[in-house]
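Quick review question:
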């Protein structure tokens, strides 16, 4: 029973931190030491990634009409714009997709540690504050997806690939990159959500295939953990996504920058002084 409660907690953490630009990895690496689960390391490595499927389904649910090119409520022009949006999403996923397949395990092996996570949390926290101050008083050059061209979509995808470094935050690097390129906060946040669908789905499926290829059979407890964790991440993600969409309409990202810096300092203090 205790392990199931831990799984629910991890699902809540994933559902919140995956979409807010505060690094899900930074939180997980801290909580995995504070509240460890008594499951095999091989399973936990897969679990961290696979529960993201629940988060992905939340994006599909929240933005279903916007992402559905076959909606009967859309006219021909709107359907074409939706197809164009999907093409831009796929273009933006290319850098992270290619590098993820080639180097994901290498990055996990060499950079999945608390010093890397703490440094990434603090550096990107500072960048959020600096870029928001730099953008103050500037009007965004790209305020809608129709204004988002292919070149910009690809460059944003390159920023997303930086999230292979743990602690960076996939949504954080994507939003920062988009804002540097002149994209409005709202479009940057939504595009970050959309890019997650193929990238995170691909990463989850890759982890599942590798786990199965290793010849390790899932126990009943592990299956229950995957299902419960995924469902929890889905439910919490729905609220987290809606919160961020509403938040960026009235606020900037400086608060998230401050939060990242504080969390990075906490990670350093915990592992340097306590652990």
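Suggested answer, residue by residue:
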């Amino acid at each position: 029973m205790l392990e199931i409660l831990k799984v629910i907690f991890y699902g809540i953490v994933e559902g919140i931190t995956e979409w807010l630009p505060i690094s899900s990895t930074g939180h997980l690496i801290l909580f995995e030491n504070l509240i460890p689960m008594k499951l095999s390391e091989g399973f936990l490595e897969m679990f961290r990634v696979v529960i993201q499927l629940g988060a992905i389904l939340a994006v599909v649910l929240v933005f279903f009409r916007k992402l559905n090119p076959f909606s009967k409520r859309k006219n021909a022009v709107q359907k074409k714009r939706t197809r164009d949006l999907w093409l831009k999403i796929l273009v933006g996923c290319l850098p992270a997709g290619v590098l993820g397949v080639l180097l994901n395990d290498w990055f996990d092996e060499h950079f999945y540690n608390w010093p890397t996570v703490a440094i990434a949390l603090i550096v990107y926290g500072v960048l959020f504050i600096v870029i928001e101050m730099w953008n103050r008083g500037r009007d965004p050059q790209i305020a809608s997806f129709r204004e988002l061209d292919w070149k910009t979509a690809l460059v944003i995808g390159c920023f997303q690939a930086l999230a292979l470094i743990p602690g960076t935050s996939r949504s954080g690097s994507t939003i920062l990159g988009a804002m540097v390129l002149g994209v409005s906060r709202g479009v940057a946040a939504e595009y970050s959500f959309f890019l997650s669908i193929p990238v995170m789905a691909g990463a989850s499926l890759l982890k599942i295939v590798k786990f199965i290829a290793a010849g390790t059979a899932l126990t009943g407890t592990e299956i229950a953990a995957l299902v419960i964790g995924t469902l929890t991440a889905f439910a919490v993600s729905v609220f987290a996504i809606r919160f961020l969409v509403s938040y960026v309409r009235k606020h900037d990202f400086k608060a998230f920058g401050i939060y990242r810096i504080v969390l990075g300092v906490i990670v350093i203090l915990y592992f340097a002084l306590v652990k």
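Why it works: The chain has one domain: 2-274. Residues 2-274 form one domain.
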